[in-house]
Design a protein that fits this description.
The chain is mainly α and about 190 residues long. The chain has 8 helices and 3 strands. Helix 4 packs antiparallel against helix 5, helix 5 packs antiparallel against helix 6 and helix 7 runs antiparallel to helix 8. The longest helix is centred in the N-terminal third of the chain and has 22 residues.
């Protein structure tokens, strides 16, 4: 919960690990804006900042646009099939109102072309900014996800067909259409 204090010792005990990996994980979460770490004091779950979400969403949209532009026509048949399968699982999860499964399938679908491109700098940018956007998606998941199913199908078809400009446009739209306002924690 936002504002909740996180204690590395308690987390380490709960997870059955030493404090070192917990501290490293908390530092990564702080870099992504999911927690606020005050050295020597405390770490707390952050309050969602609408501007930070909007900024992160814009960066992610641009990165996925770049991925689509560069990977279109280069994905293997297996990559396309895995994306199609992930979208099927996404659709089933949306129909079942299973937020966790839907977001997992969505993340898998979008990570396939990113991984296939192999641009480590781009992956690092996404690793930094996606957690904040995913957090807000989890909080605000709604029936609007049905539109994403069709957009995913369109993106997959465009990536396979070789139309880089249209694929890039759809990829950007998928991410940029995510709401970035009215995302304050309840």
């Amino acid at each position: 919960m936002p504002g909740e204090q996180l204690k590395d010792g308690e987390l380490a005990e709960w997870l059955g690990v030493s404090r070192t990996p917990v501290r490293e994980a908390l530092l990564r979460l702080a870099t992504s804006g999911l927690v606020v770490a005050l050295p020597g004091r405390s770490t707390t779950v952050s309050i969602i900042d609408e501007r930070a979400v909007r900024d992160a969403r814009d960066v992610i949209a641009a990165m996925h646009e770049l991925v689509a532009r560069q990977i279109t026509g280069r994905l293997s048949d297996d990559d396309i099939e895995r994306m199609t399968d992930a979208n099927r699982r996404f659709a089933a999860a949306v129909a079942a109102d299973d937020v966790g499964a839907a977001l997992d399938a969505d993340e898998e679908l979008h990570r396939i072309p990113v991984a296939a491109l192999g641009n480590q700098a781009l992956e690092a940018v996404l690793d930094q900014f996606e957690p904040l956007v995913r957090r807000t998606e989890r909080l605000r998941f709604s029936g609007d996800a049905h539109a994403s199913i069709e957009l995913h199908d369109e993106l997959i078809a465009l990536l396979a067909s070789g139309d880089a400009q249209k694929a890039a446009s759809v990829a950007f739209h998928i991410w940029h259409s995510l709401p970035a306002d009215d995302v304050a924690d309840d």
